[in-house]
């Protein structure tokens, strides 16, 4: 395979990381974001007023920021497609937001496979959003595998919520 | 049946002895020779050379025997020959813990002793040890002065009234006292079992804290028995699955330090860490060294698809080894560097495949029910350890490299990620419990399926990777 010169790529990666580090779980920030109602975001202050239809809080709560997957699959269910179509429509009129799509898996799998599975799920969402007109340049994906469950019981009720892809928005860095 | 035993091909040795005495028929000298050494390295060479005489030992344990009666042994506190203080007794305690921890030996309680060992060179009163049914007696002495301690020991076959092998001496700094204890225990273990040593080794792992939905992770490295922990990173970013280099000088791992998962290499000596060349829009993970330490195999995900690549660690030049729409991950080299074993879900579920080190289609070697993953080639080259999921349970297992003679060594809610001891006899892995309270911990088990036990760690722990024998 051919690749760009490594030095250039590292510089590019660092630059992107510096202006938009997607790891909202750093330094224990995860639980705060996760426990903030149904939504989640870079931080609780940036979510805005959920009654404002242009806010991240509105996107998270009213449009729906996540879709769920059956066991060991990355195929979008009809329900997931409905949610993502709504996301795409909202994103089309709110073009200033940058988008990170997080893929997650439940704990019923080995660590490395689940990283790959989470990446598959994030890519499924990204591909669908692109098909709905969202610009690829606004989006990046990241997989957390089974590292960041939102529910910790070891039953299907919890697993079902953990097998997810979450569309995480941040302000001012889109386009 | 979960636990299976089968005639093991690891060692061509008749299954005749289970810790019993054999008639003296070896040319071993009755007279011990102590050799002074200036470094642990030199001493280790002697320790290894002693293995060549192991097959002639009077007392032996055949690890592959279906049933093992642990061999009684005694380790009287090592003699303080000047300046050693508590170190002398502490070293003998670690020797005893190493041996007893294998499950192959059982320590004779000190209050049963008839003889007292008051001098390293005093004659052994064999009848006193025979009377309490001890079969192996280990005596030792420690001298300390300045920044140097010297540890010496002798091993005796009590039943035949003979020394077993020559006495050995190790020298090092006081801070390395546990290593010297491990070297003594390794020499005893190897002489009696005929197997390679493994106590003088380290394990790098992920130290965990916090609840499952907010887990903090950092890299730690410890002695194989959980002691001497040193943390290598802080908990500011998720770190996963560290792996030692073939000579233990470097560690590969996956970190979210840049915000995205990518592989890094850390120098163990100075902790200097560098990103191995992150490509925006991709994720790299599951790295492992080649046997010569110059190449890294790993998974690279792009657009949702994960394949296996290799990279020259010095030039950064990459080549793609698999090209399929399925998930290919967890690659591991054969010890001769010619083959790579890996997992793929190309058949619809995770299975184990083998391909030439230069890449290729791969031949499936896992054939049983369920899902097979995280294959790791034994350092002896003869077996593949793996994780298996079947009917809602996780297992650690091992099989020959052609996929035959599979045996499952463990079963639990979640066992995963085996790593081999340097001698290929013991496997360490992660076990995690169910639910909010089910934290991860490290376990080890013999490749025979015996001696399953928890490795004590300061807190929850996962993703162990065993080092080679220390230099």
Keywords:
A: alpha+beta, four-stranded mixed β-sheet, 6 helices, 4 strands, 41% helix, 14% strand, globular, B: 471 residues, Rossmann fold, Neuraminidase, 4 helices, 10% helix
Provide a concise account of the structure shown.
The complex is a heterodimer of chains A (175) and B (471). Chain A contains six helices and four strands, in the order αααβαβαβαβ.
Overview of this protein structure:
The complex is a heterodimer of chains A (175) and B (471). With 175 residues, chain A is α+β, with helices and mostly antiparallel strands. Helix content of chain A is 41%, strand content 14%. Chain A has one domain: OmpA-like domain (60s Ribosomal Protein L30, Chain: A). In chain A, strands 1-4-2-3 form a 4-stranded mixed sheet. Chain A is globular. Chain B has 471 residues and is mostly beta strands. Chain B has 2 domains: 18-193, TolB, N-terminal domain (Rossmann fold); 202-466, 6 Propeller (Neuraminidase). In chain B, helix 1 packs parallel to helix 4 and helix 2 (86-101) runs parallel beside helix 4. Mean pLDDT of chain B is 88; it is low at 1-57. At the A-B interface, helix 1, helix 2, helix 5 and strand 3 of A face strand 17 and strand 20 of B.
């Amino acid at each position: 395979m051919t690749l760009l010169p490594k030095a250039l790529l590292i510089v590019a990666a660092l630059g992107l990381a510096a202006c938009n580090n997607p790891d909202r779980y750093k330094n224990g920030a995860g639980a705060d974001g996760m426990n903030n109602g149904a939504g989640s975001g870079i931080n609780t202050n940036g979510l805005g007023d959920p009654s404002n239809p242009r806010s991240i809080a509105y996107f998270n709560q009213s449009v729906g920021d996540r879709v769920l997957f059956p066991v060991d699959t990355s195929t979008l269910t009809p329900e997931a497609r409905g949610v993502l179509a709504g996301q795409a429509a909202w994103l089309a009129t709110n073009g200033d937001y940058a988008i990170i799509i997080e893929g997650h898996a439940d704990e019923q799998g080995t660590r490395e496979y689940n990283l790959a599975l989470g990446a598959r799920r994030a890519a499924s969402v990204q591909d669908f959003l692109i098909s709905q007109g969202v610009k690829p340049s606004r989006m990046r994906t990241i997989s957390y595998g089974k590292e960041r469950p939102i529910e910790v019981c070891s039953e299907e009720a919890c697993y079902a919520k953990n097998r997810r892809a979450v569309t995480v928005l941040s302000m001012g860095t889109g386009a | 049946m979960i636990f299976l035993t089968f005639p093991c091909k690891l060692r061509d040795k008749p299954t005749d002895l289970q810790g019993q005495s054999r008639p003296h028929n070896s040319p071993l000298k009755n007279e011990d020779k102590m050799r002074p050494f200036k470094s642990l390295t030199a001493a280790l060479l002697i320790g290894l050379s002693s293995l060549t005489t192991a097959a002639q030992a009077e007392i032996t344990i055949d690890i592959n025997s279906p049933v093992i009666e642990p061999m009684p042994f005694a380790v009287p506190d090592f003699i303080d020959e000047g300046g050693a203080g508590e170190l002398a007794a502490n070293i003998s305690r670690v020797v005893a813990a190493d041996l007893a921890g294998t499950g192959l030996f059982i320590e004779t309680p000190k209050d049963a002793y008839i003889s007292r060992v008051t001098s390293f060179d005093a004659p052994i009163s064999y009848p006193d040890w025979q009377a309490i049914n001890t079969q192996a007696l280990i005596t030792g002495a420690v001298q300390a002065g300045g920044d140097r301690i010297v540890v010496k020991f002798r091993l005796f076959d009590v039943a035949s009234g003979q020394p077993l092998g020559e006495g050995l001496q190790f020298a090092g700094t006081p801070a390395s006292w546990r290593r010297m204890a491990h070297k003594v225990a390794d020499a005893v273990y190897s002489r009696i079992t005929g197997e390679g040593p493994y106590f003088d080794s380290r394990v790098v792992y992920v130290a965990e804290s916090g609840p499952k939905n907010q887990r903090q992770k950092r890299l730690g490295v410890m002695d194989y028995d959980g002691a001497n922990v040193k943390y290598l990173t802080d908990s500011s970013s998720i770190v996963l699955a560290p792996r030692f280099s073939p000579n233990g000088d470097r560690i590969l791992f996956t970190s979210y330090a840049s915000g995205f998962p990518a592989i890094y290499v850390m120098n163990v000596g100075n902790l200097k860490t560098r990103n191995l060349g992150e490509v925006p829009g991709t994720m790299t993970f599951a790295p492992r060294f080649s046997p010569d330490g110059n190449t890294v195999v790993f998974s690279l995900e792009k657009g949702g698809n994960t394949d296996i690549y290799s990279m020259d660690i010095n030039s950064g030049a990459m080549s793609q080894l698999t090209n399929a729409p399925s998930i290919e991950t967890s690659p591991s080299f054969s010890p001769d560097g010619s083959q790579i074993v890996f997992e793929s879900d190309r058949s619809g579920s995770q299975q184990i495949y083998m391909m030439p080190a230069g890449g290729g289609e791969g031949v499936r070697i896992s054939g049983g029910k369920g899902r097979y993953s995280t294959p790791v080639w034994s350092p002896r080259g003869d077996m593949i350890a793996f994780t298996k999921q079947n009917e809602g349970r996780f297992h650690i297992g091992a099989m020959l490299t052609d996929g035959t003679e599979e045996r499952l060594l463990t079963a639990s809610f979640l066992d995963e990620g085996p790593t081999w001891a340097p001698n290929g006899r013991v496997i360490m892995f992660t076990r995690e419990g169910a639910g909010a309270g089910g934290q991860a911990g490290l376990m080890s088990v013999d490749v025979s399926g015996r001696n399953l036990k928890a490795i004590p760690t300061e807190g929850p722990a996962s993703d162990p990777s065993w080092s080679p024998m220390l230099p």
